[in-house]
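Colleagues,

Please find the record for the two-part complex below.
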Amino acid sequence: MSAHATTEHAYVPGEIAKPNTGWIWKTFWVLVVITAVEFAIAFAMTSPDLRTFRNSIFIVLTILKAFFIVGEFMHLKHETKSLIWTILIPTSLLVWLVVALVTEGSSIGETLSHMFS
Amino acid sequence: MAHSTTLEPTAAATPYSDAPRTGTWDGGNEPFKASYGKLMMWFFLLSDAFTFGAFLTAYGMIRHKHGVFTGTADKFFFSTAHWPIPEKVFNGFPGLHGLDLPLAFVALMTMILIFSSVTMVLAVEAGHRMDKADVQKWLLWTILFGAMFLSSQAWEWSHFIGGDEKGTLMADGSRMFGANLAANQYGPPLFADLFFFITGFHGTHVFSGVCLLVWCFIATTNGTFEKRGHYEMVEKIGLYWHFVDLVWVFVFTFFYLV
């Protein structure tokens, strides 16, 4: 290795490419719209009978937001398939865990409230 | 001897030949086509997802173990018998004392964090073009938004701990204002405990993210990444920052919306 090892630059020094940011702002607006929809539903759907349905919508929209943040901002959509699956499979198991234990919690609450009746 | 006993390279390498293996998983390359640092950051984030997943799962289970207020929103009152409705607890706004603005401040906090994610991606994109000035600019914006989020969360905590003027009458006859780890005016003790624990853990992650970003800005300014020839460090810290935003999206949904 010579004392003056030079590195090859892909660009001419001093010349910087123009920003390619269209997709970034597009994703931003998608996230803003989804959040706005969540708030609209939070304030419009207040009936206690629709609670479970309302909460399911929130969870679906949140997972949708997660797909955009992880897929675009964190660039996972453009990585190799094996990396995508390495991340997605364990997190989908986590989603199952949350659903299972929320149901468990409801069941425990039910049992406790009927314990001494 | 007609047949040689020493190994000779053959055209078709057998599993036990000296020819080096060149499969994807045989070493010497990047199986996931990502650098070591980037891959390890992804694995760390996966482990952190398990940590926060565990917290939110515990929250879900504990919350659903408690009673639910069954009346309409206007008849709601604070009680340890049922979990509070978030709109009734988180309705303050800094500087607008006394106004009932349900979830307004937390909506602002969510927008601040999403903005910070956008500026972070812009910094990464600038790094791909080796545009040092733009990297510095977008890193500074991200640090600013991150600091704004932390200050907002600090205000939320102090407002939550301080409580309102009415307070809640407790079982022993005393009137409770605000919250601590043993009791709170909004509902069951675990409501405040879980609020502090989960938002506290998230806030700690935001704080460490801001520290990393500050270091990254200093390194960028010093020309460390120019010399290195790539801004991959910005990308790796960016992954951590987006993860922090992602966790907030989930915490926000579970605590404030559901």
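Chain B is about 60% helix and 5% strand.

Comments are welcome before we finalize the supplementary table.
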